[in-house]
Specification:
The structure holds two protein chains of two kinds.
Chain A lengths: L9 H23 L27 H7 L2 H6 L2 H4 L9
Chain B lengths: L5 H5 L1 H4 L2 H5 L7 H5 L10 H4 L1 H11 L3 H4 L1 H9 L10 H9 L8 H5 L22 H9 L3 H5 L9 H4 L4 H4 L3 H4 L31 H6 L5 H5 L3 E11 L6 E10 L1 E4 L11 E6 L24 E3 L16 H4 L33
Antiparallel strand pairs in B: 1-2, 3-4, 4-5
Classes of the chains: A mainly alpha, B alpha+beta.
Chain lengths: 89, 355
């Protein structure tokens, strides 16, 4: 069987493939996708990439101070709290 | 006050939010934020760690790193009670001094022990495998960890020189427990030298030294160096009177004696010994006659000394051990404060090389 003359030109072949691809995507988007059930996400507290569900409490204030070297440097914690205790090894 | 890294904040543990484990409040005012805050949440490990790590926290109460049964039973041996809980004085003493060393999850995986400068090891990063230098050494510095790393005594251990850490020999259940209660470390699943050095097992060894000596010697008799021995241990109140603290005199020595407690696993006749920090009057600060059975138990103990070398001064030649008066435990090593039971550890001299 001889192929249609339109395929004799490579640019015509490419155009036909592109048109077919666009039609297929259109059918999926408009005809198939709306009928699929919605994907359900499990809400997690600590971020979207965590391996399992766990509780989380907003601790932004703690993080703001405890990640700041300037705040740590200005702290009087060492004077208020014993740092080390000799238990004899 | 502790500095926490942004990497930790972004990690799985960090994503929980500080307050989830430590309590307190998400407030800008420092005093309000810290009200009710728990700096050591893993002391309540069932509630705080167990939600995710239940396989560990379910058995952790059986770990001797947590319950300190070894130290507790060691002290009980010298008393006339079968359990410290039978004696409020003993129990209080134990809680005020010995129990300071018990570890919870955070003491190994996040922070340093309180007796070792305290603080976070790496800006709150959770260490899956604890750091030998920052965590193990923190509590075991005066003896095994210090000797292993060459910080106490003479040279370090050949295995340390080869880059090995505590966890390369000790299985994780030595730290986490197995779910079975043990009375002391000897009942744990301890590593043995022959786990790796199979060809040195006396039953299969082909070299003369290991074949001839067989099970009569522990490995340390030939391969350990001098270890740290503590004498005249006593307890005193600390500066503010809120707890007791122990202190003792240390001496680097190498002594071989009879095995105080031969077992099927450790049937050796001769073992390397270590003088442990105990003397009859050590609890006098608490009450009189607190250790009535003191003379029934030795205070020189079998020592699995952790500063192993292939070549040592005592294995240099047959004579350097058999003819060496200075390494065998003798009456001259005993002090007035020592237990009478130590006399049974004085060995006969080993067979003469002429025989």
């Amino acid at each position: 069987m001889s192929k249609p003359k339109i395929f004799n030109s490579w640019i015509s072949s490419l155009a036909i493939v592109a048109v077919l691809a666009i039609v297929a995507i259109g059918i999926y988007q408009m005809g198939i996708l709306p009928g699929l059930p919605e994907e359900e996400y499990t809400p997690v507290g600590g971020g979207e990439d965590k391996p399992f569900e766990f509780p989380s409490v907003d601790s932004a204030s703690c993080v703001a101070c405890h990640t700041s070297e300037a705040v740590i440097a200005a702290s009087t914690w060492v004077e208020e709290q014993p740092v080390a205790e000799d238990t004899g090894g | 006050m502790f500095l926490v890294s942004q990497e930790f904040v972004d990690s799985t543990h960090g994503s929980l939010g500080c307050i989830t484990c430590h309590g307190g409040a998400n407030e800008a005012d420092k005093a309000v934020a810290h009200e009710g805050m728990d700096p050591y949440p893993s002391r309540n490990f069932d509630a705080n760690c167990g939600a995710c790590h239940g396989e560990v926290t379910d058995v952790y109460a059986t770990s001797i790193h947590y319950n300190l049964h070894g130290m507790e039973n060691g002290l009980t041996e010298f008393t006339d009670v079968s359990s410290l809980s039978e004696s409020p004085h003993h129990e209080e003493t134990f809680d005020q001094d010995c129990f300071k060393c018990h570890a919870t999850c955070g003491d190994c995986h996040v922070s340093r022990a309180k007796n070792f400068s305290n603080g976070l090891v790496d800006q709150h990063t959770f260490l899956g495998t604890p750091s030998m230098e920052e965590n193990c050494y923190a509590c075991h510095n005066a003896r095994n960890a210090g000797e292993y790393m060459g910080m106490v005594g003479f040279g370090g251990d050949a295995h340390f020189d080869a880059g090995m850490t505590c966890m390369d020999c000790h299985p994780v259940d030595n730290f986490h427990g197995t779910g079975e209660e043990t009375d002391n470390m000897w009942e744990e699943n301890l590593p043995a030298c022959t786990d790796c050095h199979e060809d040195k097992d006396p039953e299969v060894a082909t070299d003369v030294e290991h074949k001839v000596h067989g099970d009569s010697l522990s490995c340390q008799v030939c391969h350990a160096q001098a270890n740290n021995n503590c004498f005249e241990c006593h307890l005193d109140p600390n500066e503010d009177g809120t707890a007791l603290q122990s202190s003792s005199e240390s001496k680097i020595m190498f002594r071989v004696g009879l095995n105080p407690n031969p077992t099927e696993e450790r049937p050796y006749k001769y073992v390397a010994l270590r003088h442990v920090p105990a003397q009859e009057a050590m609890l006098d600060v608490v009450g009189e006659n607190m250790m009535p059975n003191y003379d029934e138990k030795t205070n020189w103990k079998y020592s699995p000394t952790h500063n192993i070398q292939a070549s040592t001064f005592q294995n240099e030649s047959c004579e350097s051990c058999h003819e060496n008066d200075r390494i065998w435990l003798s009456e001259e090593d005993f002090r007035e404060t020592d237990s009478e039971a130590n006399f049974k550890l004085i060995p006969e001299r080993p067979p003469s090389l002429d025989q």
